[in-house]
Target: Site-specific DNA-methyltransferase
Amino acid sequence: MSDESNVLDQLISRIDDPNLQNQLAHEVELLRSSRRFGLVFDRHLPESVRLPDHPIRKGVRVALRDESSTETWIVERFTDRTREVVVLSGSGGERHVSELIVVREFGEPIYPGLRSIERIENGPSDAPWHVVINGENFHALQTLRSTHRGKVDLIYIDPPYNTGNEGWIYNDRYVDQNDRAKSSKWLSFMERRLLIARDLLKPTGVIIVAIGDDEQHRLRMLLDQVLGDQNFLANITWQGSGKNDARYTAGGVDYMVVYARNEEALTASGRRWKEHKPGVDRVLDAAEKSWKESGGDPESATKLYRSMLRSMRKELEPSVFRYDQIDEQGRVFQADNLTSPNRRPNLMYEVFHPDTSRPVPTPVNGWRYAEDTMATLIEEGRILFGPDESTTPRLKRLLVDQLDRVPYPTFTEPRMPGSRRLEAVLGDRRFPNPKDVEVIKRWIGIVAPPDGIVLDFFGGSGTTTEAVIQLNALDSGSRQSILVTNNEVGAKEAKNLRKSGFHPGDPEWEKHGVFEYVCRPRISTVVTGKRPNGSVYSDGFKANVEMFDLTYLDPGMVRRGHEFKPVAPLMWLEGGARGPRIDEVPDKGWVLSAHYGVLFDIDVLTEFAGAVVDASTTGAPPTVLFIITDSEAEYQEAVSRLPVGIETVQLYEDYLSNYTININGGAR
Model:
């Protein structure tokens, strides 16, 4: 439909040839109907990634491991049963498998598994296990979409800021400031991951994305499209003391853009964001010390406490500083007025002094509370009367009732503590610009419930996992961290390694990657208290952590049941990653843990079903049950014999179809 106010429609109307005019108007209308309002960017070709550990098989795409050519080929066949030499498509000829590396595009199906590389059991047996996955995060997200769809309470990510100088990789190539398509490549890169991340969130789940000035405005629009602008919650501003050119403004600013999966569901849940007011804990400690030193005398305790309070004044909010008295029970309080903010006739009533039984002065605007509420407060000793009826009583407002506040969407913290802390953990500086664990701990504590699942799929140096572990120790929470990082080598280090003749997949290359060199030793050191070199860092934490490599399986081997070991951790994850893992096929044909179960042999269904019914009767049913059978009829028979309400999964058909479907964003 033409619009007289539109310049393009006006120009079309000036065309003399009516046929040409109609054709152009028609084409313009088609463009308008297909155009959406919002962020518009080129969706670049699906990313490709080099997978050093992926097995060389018939039909896979490969490239030269030494990166001497950018050409890729398809493996057509092996030359003999040794499977050491392959015939490649096109001009690839014959190559030894040691010369090749698998290249996988993101539009192709994957069949992931997990290989445990480090298991640290340092916490209670019933505590959730924190999980770290080393692998391509897009593939790891596909894996988690099977195990954690709709289960995650908080996603916190700190993706590449796309400044042009941090050297992030797209399609196995570093993107720099001179790449004209760097923003659209970044948006393509982010959109693919955010679409899957959306599926992982609970209806009440929240995602926080850290970002800088370069892409903050584009990220906000991208999240509007992926999650809906109605689910925007906050744009948190972090004013740091980072270096910049200081010609216009001093210091650097980062952002945390926050969206809900479903803001209406989050509101309906009744969960509010709140945190302790700054300095409250120090104030309470000072009051406790004053109370003990005074021998429990309120007057002496108040005098000592006020002296301590004055020394902390610059660090406290005025609303906290006003709590300057200690009562006969050692509680901190302030004497507040009882005047109603509005003149209301029904709040004009008489209040009698408890000793003289005569009425005290009524405030001009009336009392703050209704008469029955005032009577309750007087009975509880929350109204402070003077020596006689000549003074207006005051409200005793206890500090313990005012500990928390809704957090402000802006804060100022220097960035150096993050680097210093990581250096202290590892003993040297290995990673540029890590996030401050205190900042991340603060926001996880505000947003995620104490028993929530927290996911970070741009895990980098491992700050998020350390923050969750520290937070659990601080408030006795049972939060579970799932962290995904890769073993990418920094641009500068990669250049030096290539000069020395090393390439991705070589041991010398891989040991310098962010997972092996930074993330893994950091988390191990934080939990155990000992660095890899044996030196002592701390007393450690009572936490359980397991670290995995993401592996790629042959679907044929999976279908024949020959890949149970790498699939087993996925079942454990889907069961909540708690307690022992079912890693071996038992002689009796089934296993049932406190959280999940596996039926390996359909012939022992009766015994398995009986055990599940017994567990459900005692009030501790498993979360999910895996039934291994190729027969749909046998699977349905098993389901009919199991208690209603427990999720069941058919292996390995559901596993294979899930990852085949997931390339297009579907679900099991």
Notes: The mean pLDDT is 89. The first strand starts at residue 48 and ends at 51. The chain has six domains: 1-35, 48-105, 128-274+407-541, 275-326, 337-400, 559-664.
